Every structure is written in structure tokens, then in C-alpha cells.
Amino acid sequence: MEFKDYYATLGVERSATQEEIKRSYRKLARKFHPDVSKEPDAEERFKAVAEAYKALGDPERRAAYDSVGSGHQGNQEFHPPPGWDSGFEFSGADAGFGGEQSEFFESLFGRHAGAGRRAQAPQHANGADHHAKVRISLADSYRGATRSITLQVPQADAAGHLTLQSRQLEVNIPKGIRDGQHLRLAGQGSPGTGRGMAGDLYLEIAFAPDPHFRVEGRDVYLDLPVAPWEAALGAAMAVATPDGSVELRVPPASSPGRKLRLKGKGLPGNPSGDLYAVLSIALPPADTDAAKAAYAELAKACGSFDPRHSMKEAPGV
Asked: Is residue 179 packed enough to be buried (19+ CB in 10 Å), middle (13-18) or exposed (0-12)?
């Protein structure tokens, strides 16, 4: 995916104030509006300028864009880093433009681009709901936890420069919560006006990447390396899970890719998910004379074994 330098599109510096960004947008929008411009690519330029302003004209989106945009240049291949949007608090405000956005824009702001901005607040109105994405460990879902989280709230200061204000919250993580679920924190959104009630804060839960486990719904998968003799002869072993160690029996004559199911050992729930150990064969290195001799004996004992037998039956071989 191509990285889009929205600052370059609007012709402003990264240190520009919100007012400078707005002025540049208005100037370019008039220049490239398809109804008045004679430029051959006016429509595409107008769309690009509108998208850039939609990203930078809102302090919340601008802060999120800046967090992943520093160091990138236009026409570079770009993939949002995992967890790029965690910890940013959004109010869901929209810059006011409809239409389709680029793949790059949607990859960054797709979840936050749908709400509209209220033109004028009434005398008494409830505050806006906020939302943020937070990452937790898989173990927190297995056991439940209380965690202190820090959220970054983008704001424009008196001079129009973008700043980030931090706030900390104590959050109870319920046991069995799934990736993508939301927690509602009542009254933690924007304050109301007049006698209006404060909005709520919705936290979208995401699991932090784990080097050993992956999650599908409530089921949890573990890639489990076993020695060749354990796969061939069978073995009993202790296996670490997010909720502690469990005993697992590998049946004899197990092949790579075989799934061993531990019922009810996935994410807690009603019902709980399962944990699947997916076997892989780990080969010991032939780095000593004894190991080399053992491999030679294995080759003699299994002389009729041909690991490429199926390839010889393939068409054209």
C-alpha cells in the first residue's frame, strides 16, 4: 500500500497549526474544484486534497496519523504497524466529507470515519461518546484483571498547534473477554452542556501479539514442537498455556500438523473455547559424532522410507 503524505498534499509543514491547515485546504479546494478548474486532473487532485484535510483537519486523526507517519515519504510501501492506534482516544468527530477514501486512509481511520460533527450544540445536551483501542494480554482474558491504562487525547492548543494530553484510568478486564469486544465506561466521554449527562467511553479490546498462541473466537491455538521420537513413539509432556501448565499426551505415529484438542482450555465462557496443540517436528542437530552416528543408524533402520514418494507420482514427474 502506498504511503500518503497528507502534509505534502496540502503544502504545509508538519508543524503547521490547525488554522494554517484549514487555510491551505480552502485555497487548494477552490483551485481544483471540478466545476471551476481547467486542470486535466482536477477531480483527482480535489479528492486528494479533501482526503488530506479529513485526516489533518481533525486533531484526533492528525495525532494518530503523526504517530505512524513520521519517517515515511510519499510513494513508499506502507503497512500500519500492529497496535498503531492503541491508546488514542477518539470522539468520533468527522471532518464533514463523504465519498470513498483511499485504501491508505481506510487502513488508518476506517473505524473512526463514520460519525458526523454536530453543527451547533443545544443549551442542554449530553456529551459525546468517546472510543479507544487498548491491548491486553491473553492471560488477562483467561483470569480477569484490573489494569491501569493511559490514553492520549489529541487537542489543539491556543495557538492552534497539536498537543497530546494523557489521562489514566483503572479498568476492570472481565474474565473471558474476546478480541474485538467493547467495554463501556459510563460518564468517561465528553462532558455534557447545561444539565446534559457526560458521554461514555467505549474501549475496544485487542489482544497483544503473543509469540506462542493465536486466537480464533474462543479457541486458542499453540504450535507445539516435538522431537521425532516423541511423535513416532508417543509421549506425555507438560505444556504451558495462558492459564498455567497442563498435561498433554502425544499419541504414537503422530504427523506434523496433527491437532490435539484440550477441551475447555481456550478462552473462558459459556461454553469455554478449546485449546489446540498443533504438532511440528523439531529435528535435533547432527553436531556431534554421536548424533551423526545416531542419524546413520536411523537411515539404515528406515532405509525403505522415501520422503519424496508423493512427488514422484505428480503429473509431469
From this structure: middle
